[in-house]
Amino acid sequence: MRQSRALKVYIESVGLISLLCLSLFGLRMIVTGTGRYWFVPENLALAWAGLFFAWVLVNRLKTSPWRSWQNIALSVLWLIFLPNTWYVLTDFVHVFATGEISQLFDIVLIFNLVLCGFILGFTSLYLVHRELDKRCSLARSYLLIEIVILISSFAIYLGRILRWNSWDVLSDPGGLVINVSDRIIDPFGHPRSLNMTALFFVLLSATYFAFYRGVSFIRASKTSH
Fold first, then answer.
1. Theoretical Cys-Cys bridge with 124: which of 54, 55, 87, 111, CB 3.0 to 4.6 Å?
2. Contact 89, 155 (CB under 8 A)
């Protein structure tokens, strides 16, 4: 009962931020008559998809082992869509003085998208992290989470610089494999890939650590009472 209530409050809270983001996007379209930031609703939907697959996976793990093909498939889908939650930070590259509307308005719009994406991403990661904690040591589970963050950081590079997206895993897996393998085999031959991946890895690792410690402290405080 308490978990259902907490889930409802969470959905309402993040849903409110998402609604504000969509409202700002809609208002911009009405005022300017352009769809310049058409990617906002799409990226927001992709960010929610990451949380959706994590939620379904966690609920299935209550009754079935992780090694079942369904849970493995859900894990892969979660890993594919998770980077979208943090990719939105790179959407700030689209913000510049267009003369269509106040630049500050566009900054607030993209910040709202980034805020929502990061909340969804860290929540999704935390849900899976808790399941890992139940099945292996704390050190090993955190190491696995760091590997997920590293993969996501590289995926953000693939999305922003090479313009790959989550759907390309199905539509053009061959081309994706070529791009990925080339940079894994010779990382120093692609300094931009290395630098951007490292930058996001440090940012996401540090931010998630703060998020994880904060949520863990709150949960421990409630338990002690």
1. 54
2. no
